[in-house]
Amino acid sequence: MATYPNGLRGRLVRPHEEPPPGRHLLGRIAFLDHHRPPAVRDGVADMGVHLARDERALVTEVWETDAPPTSGMYQDLVYAHDGEYLFCAGQIPEGGSYREPVREAYDAAFDLISELGYPHVIRIWHFINDINRANADGMEIYRDFCLGRAEAVDRRLGPAGEMPAATGIGSLGGGISWYLLASRSGRIRHLENPLQVPAPSYPHRYGPRPPKFARATSLSPPGLDGAGDVFVAGTASILGHETIHEGDVAKQCDVTLANMAKVLSRENLLAHGIDDGRTLKDLRLVKVYLRREEDLEAVRSACAEAFSDTAEIVYFTVDICRSDLLVEIEGIAP
Ligand code: 3EB
């Protein structure tokens, strides 16, 4: 189980499992076989994401900290904050176009972050139903989503505004479910991967506006050296900006793992001014997304070899933002 030096820790648990003594539940994301709207449930900021095809896949992600949180609703978002960390989650109902509702959802989250005073966004996840399908105007839903996100980010942060590590992946229902973590005083550094074009600089052929996220984000307590916790974004078989090894899941796994290793490497952290390093064996709370159920054994054996025996790893069969991608992996290296 991952223990983060700064008090924030994510864990995968069974539903209704209580936090350890002295720890508090900041937020809860249940991966379900249906979706569940964002709400405060039993005093906890909670949302259910439709990501499980059957009961075997049900799992709950909890974010725990050292201080008791205050929770509530802000517009359509559920949130909780403890003085140092903010968790916030929302769902955008299924619709013919996501550009505007995504812009509005991001606007609401930016407002919440500034009102409550948690300016450093650490990590964002987006689960997008029918991600590869066309919207009402014939635009792929992922591209439609990226358009709204880019406009919201431009408006708040300007065109050079930096966004944290993110995941943008398919889901099985519920429109777009998304959540984020932010910090009040933590030191946030966004990392890129020298093997990959930064996503915000992807060329136009991938959509009218590029995806806005960093390859990884490091969260360290102020005043302490080192990388702290490194949140690695959803990572895939992309070199430069191009998908590599179309149709070959084993090779896509290899490139994905090599990309993750590169982002975490001492060489890369040094290039970002951080005197530290991580390896794949440090990763915890690993989420693996695969497009085809039949690839599970191949992906599982690649991951078993790459990651630590003690890492928590979950597998979800969902669509991935590019139709030629078969696998995407994320994790956290404390
Ligand atoms: C990629 O590297 C794969 O749109 O927020 C990974 C992580 C991907 C996040 C997002 C997309 C996103 O382009 C896709």
Overview of the structural elements:
The chain is α+β, with helices and mostly antiparallel strands and 334 residues long. It has one domain (9-333): RutC-like (60s Ribosomal Protein L30, Chain: A, 2-Layer Sandwich). 20% of the residues lie in helices and 35% in strands. It has five helices and 19 strands. A six-stranded mixed beta sheet has the order 6-7-8-11-9-10, with helices on one face. A hairpin with a 2-residue loop joins strand 6 (70-74) and strand 7. Helix 1 (99-116) packs parallel to helix 2 (141-157) and helix 3 (249-264) packs parallel to helix 5 (296-306). The longest helix is centred in the N-terminal third of the chain and has 18 residues, at 99-116. The radius of gyration is 18 Å and the shape is globular. The relative contact order is 0.14. Residues 126, 166-168, 199, 211, 213, 233-234, 236, 238, 321 line the site of 3-(2-carboxyethyl)benzoic acid.
Brief synopsis:
The chain is α+β, with helices and mostly antiparallel strands.
Helical content band: 10-25%
Number of domains: 1
Strand content: 35-45%
What is the string of helix and strand elements?
A: EEEEEEEEHEHEEEEEEEHHEHEE
What binds here, in terms of ligands, is:
3-(2-carboxyethyl)benzoic acid
Report the principal-axis shape. Answer: globular
CATH architecture: 2-Layer Sandwich
Per the CATH scheme, the topology name is 60s Ribosomal Protein L30, Chain: A
Enumerate the spans where pLDDT stays under 50 for 5 or more consecutive residues: none
Radius of gyration: 18 Å
Query: What is the structural class?
Result: alpha+beta
Q: Mean pLDDT, rounded to whole units?
A: 95
